[in-house]
Fold these 2 entries.
Entry 1:
Amino acid sequence: MGSERMEMRKRQMSVQQEPVSSAQTQQGPGNRGPNACCFCWCCCCSCSWNEEGDERSRRASHEIRTDDTLNCEESAKPTVEDVRSWGQSFDKLMKNPAGRNTFREFLRTEFSEENMLFWLACEDLKKENNKSVIEEKARLIYEDYISILSPKEVSLDSRVREVINRNMLEPTSHTFDDAQLQIYTLMHRDSYPRFMNSSVYKNLLQTISEPPSES
């Protein structure tokens, strides 16, 4: 009886081990099961494809972002009258390319250059007539200056943000008009008075007012 029981136990153990060995063989390093294949496709093939797509999108966006609005505007050397007029009116300052460049230099020292960049981007958008270009530029402006995730986000109130979000459903060249006006007013009331008392403005006025030295 003892030997029969031992024999039966050996048979039971061999039967229990067979499925385990079979499962291990199917899921060995060289043989992935259905779940492993699915996981591989989702986390390897799919993600690598998405990374390539994201890279293409970033390159396309970079090409559009590297327009003239992100670089200093071309402008003639300002005259004494030009520089003095900037102190008379913020409108005169903003209508003068050299004035905008000088004011932008000052904003950079206050870490608020994004206000001028946003204003310039809106001006550039207003010049567009092509619908697809307008939509793409509007998207980039939103990502760069409106999105709360952007490091260059400008300060806008909730009402203006709601208007922008509605306008973004069908972007036009005037999608950001309310926001542009608010940022213009902010620069006028907040930054402009400090600019007038800054070394950036005073040094320029002094330099340009000095008579040329005789050789």
Entry 2:
Amino acid sequence: SDLRQMFATKSVENIQFLPFLTTDVNNLSWLGYGVLKQDWTLIAVNTVGATLQTLYILVYLYYSPAKRPVLLRSLLLLAVLAAGYGYFTLLIEDARTRLAHLGLFCSIFTISMYLSPLADLAKIVRSKSTRCLSFPLTVTTFLASTSWTLYGLQLRDPYITVPNVPGIVTSVVRFWLFWRYPPGQDKPY
């Protein structure tokens, strides 16, 4: 829906960039974890996710009037990802240790991805407006984090299970915000 809105309005107004950037880095990180673990579910889902998120970023960049901050944020997170890749491939030789360190790295990024939409929480409460939150993204985040939590429990993989629990919690908080400040009550910032 955010992509459709960008195409329709030819604008990125009221659309947050950070959640999609962190989601892209998150997908790329989990793709590496899936490759190392040889888990085809992780590989397939995160290949599709990284491709879609990268396309979203390119469309956002195209319609953004302030391209420099968008590019700088993207390059900063790509540098972190490249440094992480170098660390995991060059400095850690033992495969089990590499998997554990990469799992922790992925967990941290997953948690930051789930917390990023709440960066505007104070603004939302002050303005009594959920205009800067995406309801479809909230629903998708809730379903995805719940699915990954259940998948992690099935595999008994704490690196998949634990970081997805905040996704469930932050989605519930966002659902509450949509209930508390329905879109009809929106006041401009």
